[in-house]
Specification:
The structure holds two protein chains of two kinds. Chain A has strands spanning 4-7, 10-13, 19-25, 32-38, 44-51, 57-58, 67-73, 76-81, 90-97, 104-106, 110-114. By secondary structure, chain A is mainly β. The chains are: A mainly beta, B mainly beta. Chains A and B meet through strand 5, strand 9 and strand 10 of A and strand 4, strand 5 and strand 10 of B.
Chain lengths: 115, 113
């Protein structure tokens, strides 16, 4: 079964609204989670590293005020796309880093469509 | 700049034969490599990994080969099964403590019954 749960799997929203995506680690405590974005026929691009109890670390070119990340517990990280616009439409996917072994386990992803 | 490249976007293989997926990288500082498998509407699933100090790692039907001098790795699946049809991503870690993965663009493998 899945070790990382991501919700919702699909969101359709109007331009200007904010969308929150949840990522839960089910089988282990994850001090580190990651958020990726995937465009069609492209690789997964790391957006930010989410650290429990501290601020997220954003990759170059990713607007931290646009993509708010909260990692309030060892099993939950959230990504909020604020004031979403059509160009934010994409496939967002999270992962949780299992402490022993260093393997990332991925959620099923969220397809965001902004009208 | 794509540091991890999978030059074949797709590959078709007859069931029972060997599937070979290739991956090239440019950064010689990568010291850990992973292969992930992804079905539609699901997240990537970890398959197999290899440390840069090794040249081969085997796990059941899956074997990963690493050629550091050529900055090339490959995933061999033998025998190929219909359930292996998926998109395969190779990924690289800059250093084990860093944990940030750099992904290739993926190769869609189709196993023909």
């Amino acid at each position: 079964g899945a070790v990382v749960s991501q919700h919702p799997s699909r969101v359709i929203c109007k331009s200007g609204t904010s969308v929150k995506i949840e990522c839960r680690s089910l089988d282990f405590q994850a001090t580190t989670m990651f958020w990726y974005r995937q465009f069609p026929k492209q690789s997964l691009m790391l957006m930010a590293t989410s650290n429990e109890g501290s601020k997220a670390t954003y990759e170059q070119g990713v607007e931290k005020d646009k993509f708010l990340i909260n990692h309030a517990s060892l099993t939950l990280s959230t990504l909020t796309v604020t004031s979403a616009h059509p160009e934010d439409s994409s496939f967002y996917i999270c992962s949780a880093l299992r402490p022993a072994g260093g393997i990332q386990y991925f959620g099923a992803g969220t397809r965001l469509s902004v009208l | 700049d794509q540091q991890v490249k999978q030059n074949s976007p797709s590959l078709s293989v007859q069931e029972g034969r060997i599937s070979i997926l290739n991956c090239d990288y440019t950064n010689s500082m990568f010291d850990y490599f992973l292969w992930y498998k992804k079905y539609p509407a699901e997240g990537p699933t970890f398959l197999i990994s290899i440390s840069s100090i090794k040249d081969k790692n085997e796990d059941g039907r899956f074997t990963v080969f690493l050629n550091k001098s050529a900055k090339h790795l490959s995933l061999h699946i033998v025998p190929s099964q219909p359930g292996d049809s998926a998109v395969y991503f190779c990924a690289a870690l800059l250093n084990f403590g860093n944990e940030k993965l750099t992904f290739g663009t993926g190769t869609r493998l189709t196993i023909i019954p």
